C-alpha cells in the first residue's frame, strides 16, 4: 500500500469531549450543546467531533468549569453564574438581576463588545467562551402561599441559586441550595416554602404545581439567562482559524435555537399548568421595588470589591439604560397592542 | 514538477456573487450580507468566497430575486416582501402585519418549521433561503401633521411599500412608491404627507425630522422585518454538504448580528432625533383598531385566493396566538418594570 500524500489536511481530525452542567431531562438546555456539536461536525465534514456528556457522566454539573480549566475535558456547556462563588464576575455572563432581557443580552454580546469583555475575564480562568443558548425571562417560581407584602418574604425558605439568593437574603428570605431532583419532595414536606426553576416547559416536568400552586412572575433575577459553551483556552488556541469560526457560528446557532425552542414549547406547557391548577400571580410593585432596592445594595457592595465585575457591569448598565429607552416605543407598544388582541380573542 | 495528488479537495473553491437589494449607505442591513459572507470565507479557510455587490452594481435592488432565479448571480440579500407582487406569499418571509415580533419570527423560523415552509414556497421560484438579519419592530414613520382620528388617514399621501400600502388604502391612504433617495424632497415639497422608512438609525441619515416632525409608532406592518439570504436552488444543491451547513450558520449569525447592530445604534439616534425636534407620537387605539380591521380584510382576501399564502399564514397565526399568551407574563412584566425604572431615573 502507498503512504498517504504528506499534505496538510484542510479539515484535520479533532475529537473533543464536552461536559454539560445539565441532565438530559432538561432537553431544551442540554439540547443546545447537542445542536452546537452537530453543526460543528456537519460543517467540518465529520472531522471536528464534540462528544456531549450529561452532568455526572464525567464530572458533576457544578464542576464543569474546573474540568475545562484543568484540561480534563476540552469543553463544557454551562451557566456561567454557577461559578459566582469563585468570582462574582461569572454571574454577569448568564444573568444580571434587574438588567437586560435576552434580546439586549444578545445585542451586548455581539455588537456591544460583551463577548470580548467576558472573554477577557474568562481568559484569566483559562477559558474562552461563546453564548450558546438563552431561556428568555424566567418565571419567579412556585410559592405555597401568596406573596402580598414585603413582610411575606421574611423568613421564607426558598430554593434559589447563589447570587439571587444573596439579594433575597437582604429581605429576610432563607435561600436554600437543593438539586433539581430533590425540590419536589422538599416542597411537599414543607422543608421549603417556595422554589424557582426555569419556566413552564421545564417546571411542568417536575410537577411543582401539585405542591405549590402560586406561580409568580417575573423572575427578575433572570430577565434573560444565557448559557455559554466554554473551551479550554489552550485547546481553543490550537484550533485552525477556520475551525474557530465554525465553532463560534455553531455556538451562536445554538444560542438562537435554544431560545426558539423555549419560545415554541413554553406556551403549551403554560396552558397545561393552568388547566392543572397553577394560579398565576404577578409580584406587585411594592415587592418588586423592595427587591430592586436590595439588588442595588448588592451591586454597590460587589462593584466596590471587584473591579473586573464593575467593568463589565458598568458596560451592561449603560447599554440597558439606552435599550429600555428605545424599546419602549415600537417594540413595546406593538407587543402591548398584540397582547390586547390576543386576550380579547381578536387574534 | 509533480502533478498535485488526485484527491478530492476537502474545501473546494467556490466564488459566488451576491446582489444586495440595498445601498451601502444602509450599512446595518447591507452589512448583514457582508458579515455573512465574511463568516463563510473564514469558515472555509478562504475557499468559499461570496462577493457582495450593492443594489444597482449588477442589477437594481428590486430585481435581486429574478437575478438569482435566472442564475445571473448565485445569491441575493433582500427583503422577500419586495416581491409580493409576483406572489403575495413572498410577503410572509419578511413581515406579516399585526402578527409576530422579531423574536417570534426567529422561533417560528428555527423551531416552528418556518424556514422549511418558506423554502417549500421559495423552491417553486428556484430559490433556497435562510434568515439573515432583522430590524426588530419598525417605527410607523414621519408625518407632517398629527394623526388623531381615522379620518386623518383619509386622503393622506404616504410613501409606504406594497402590501402595507394595500392595507392602508382601505382607510383612504394614497400609498406612494418612492425610492429612498427621493423621499426627503417629496416630503419637503408636500408631494407626500408622510413616509415610513425603518427606525431611528436609518431615518436620521435621511433627515426626515426636518420636514415632517411627528414620528409615529409602532410600525404595525413590521412588528419584525426579516431579511433573507437567497441562493439559486440549483447552485445551492451543488454545494458540498458541509458548505451548506457553513452557509446556514453564517446566515443565522448575520441574522442575530443585524438585530444586535440596530439595537445598539437605534437608542443614540433616537435621542439625537428628539434633540433635533422630532415629536414622538403613538398611534392611538382607534387608529390601530381601524388598521387592524383593514388588515384582517386583506388577509381574508389573500387567503381565499392563494393557498400557498394561507398555509404559511395559518402556521404563523397559530404560533403568534400562543406566543403572545406566554410572553405577556414574565417577558412583558419584566420589561415593563424595567422601563418604569428607566423613565424614573432609577436604572
UniProtKB/TrEMBL annotation, chains A, B:
<feature type="binding site">
    <location>
        <position position="196"/>
    </location>
    <ligand>
        <name>substrate</name>
    </ligand>
</feature>
<keyword id="KW-0479">Metal-binding</keyword>
<dbReference type="InterPro" id="IPR018389">
    <property type="entry name" value="DctP_fam"/>
</dbReference>
<dbReference type="Pfam" id="PF03480">
    <property type="entry name" value="DctP"/>
</dbReference>
<dbReference type="InterPro" id="IPR006311">
    <property type="entry name" value="TAT_signal"/>
</dbReference>
<dbReference type="InterPro" id="IPR038404">
    <property type="entry name" value="TRAP_DctP_sf"/>
</dbReference>
<dbReference type="GO" id="GO:0046872">
    <property type="term" value="F:metal ion binding"/>
</dbReference>
<dbReference type="InterPro" id="IPR019546">
    <property type="entry name" value="TAT_signal_bac_arc"/>
</dbReference>
<dbReference type="GO" id="GO:0031317">
    <property type="term" value="C:tripartite ATP-independent periplasmic transporter complex"/>
</dbReference>
<protein>
    <submittedName>
        <fullName>Secreted protein</fullName>
    </submittedName>
</protein>
<feature type="binding site">
    <location>
        <position position="138"/>
    </location>
    <ligand>
        <name>substrate</name>
    </ligand>
</feature>
<dbReference type="GO" id="GO:0055085">
    <property type="term" value="P:transmembrane transport"/>
</dbReference>
<feature type="binding site">
    <location>
        <position position="222"/>
    </location>
    <ligand>
        <name>substrate</name>
    </ligand>
</feature>
<feature type="binding site">
    <location>
        <position position="159"/>
    </location>
    <ligand>
        <name>substrate</name>
    </ligand>
</feature>
<dbReference type="InterPro" id="IPR026289">
    <property type="entry name" value="SBP_TakP-like"/>
</dbReference>
<keyword id="KW-0732">Signal</keyword>
<feature type="binding site">
    <location>
        <position position="197"/>
    </location>
    <ligand>
        <name>Na(+)</name>
    </ligand>
</feature>
Amino acid at each position: 500500500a502507498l503512504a498517504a500524500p504528506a499534505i496538510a489536511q484542510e479539515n484535520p481530525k479533532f475529537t473533543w469531549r464536552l461536559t454539560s452542567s445539565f441532565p438530559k431531562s432538561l432537553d431544551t438546555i442540554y439540547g443546545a450543546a447537542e445542536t452546537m456539536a452537530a453543526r460543528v461536525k456537519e460543517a467540518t465534514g465529520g472531522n471536528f467531533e464534540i462528544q456531549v456528556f450529561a452532568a455526572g457522566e464525567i464530572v458533576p454539573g457544578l464542576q464543569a468549569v474546573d474540568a475545562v480549566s484543568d484540561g480534563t475535558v476540552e469543553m463544557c456547556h454551562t451557566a456561567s453564574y454557577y461559578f459566582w462563588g469563585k468570582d462574582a464576575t461569572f454571574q454577569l455572563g448568564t444573568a444580571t438581576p434587574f438588567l437586560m432581557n435576552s434580546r439586549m443580552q444578545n445585542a451586548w454580546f455581539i455588537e456591544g463588545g460583551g463577548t470580548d469583555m467576558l472573554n477577557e475575564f474568562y481568559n484569566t480562568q483559562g477559558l474562552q467562551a461563546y453564548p450558546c443558548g438563552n431561556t428568555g425571562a424566567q418565571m419567579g417560581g412556585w410559592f405555597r402561599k401568596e406573596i402580598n407584602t414585603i413582610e411575606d418574604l421574611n423568613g421564607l425558605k426558598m430554593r434559589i441559586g447563589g447570587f439571587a439568593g444573596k439579594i433575597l437574603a437582604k429581605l429576610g428570605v432563607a435561600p436554600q441550595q437543593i438539586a433539581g431532583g430533590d425540590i419536589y419532595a422538599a416542597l411537599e414536606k414543607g422543608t421549603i416554602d417556595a422554589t424557582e426553576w426555569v419556566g413552564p416547559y421545564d417546571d411542568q416536568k417536575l410537577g411543582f404545581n401539585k405542591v405549590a400552586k402560586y406561580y409568580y412572575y417575573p423572575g427578575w433575577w433572570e430577565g434573560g439567562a444565557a448559557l455559554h459553551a466554554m473551551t479550554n483556552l489552550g485547546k481553543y488556541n490550537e484550533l485552525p482559524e477556520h475551525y474557530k469560526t465554525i465553532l463560534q457560528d455553531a455556538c451562536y446557532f445554538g444560542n438562537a435555537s435554544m431560545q426558539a425552542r423555549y419560545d415554541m414549547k413554553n406556551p403549551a406547557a403554560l396552558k397545561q399548568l393552568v388547566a392543572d391548577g397553577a394560579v398565576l400571580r404577578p409580584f406587585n410593585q411594592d415587592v418588586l421595588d423592595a427587591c430592586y432596592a436590595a439588588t442595588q445594595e448588592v451591586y454597590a457592595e460587589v462593584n466596590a470589591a471587584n473591579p473586573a465585575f464593575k467593568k463589565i457591569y458598568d458596560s451592561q448598565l449603560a447599554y440597558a439604560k439606552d435599550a429600555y429607552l428605545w424599546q419602549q416605543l415600537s417594540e413595546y407598544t406593538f407587543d402591548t397592542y398584540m397582547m390586547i388582541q390576543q386576550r380579547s380573542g381578536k387574534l
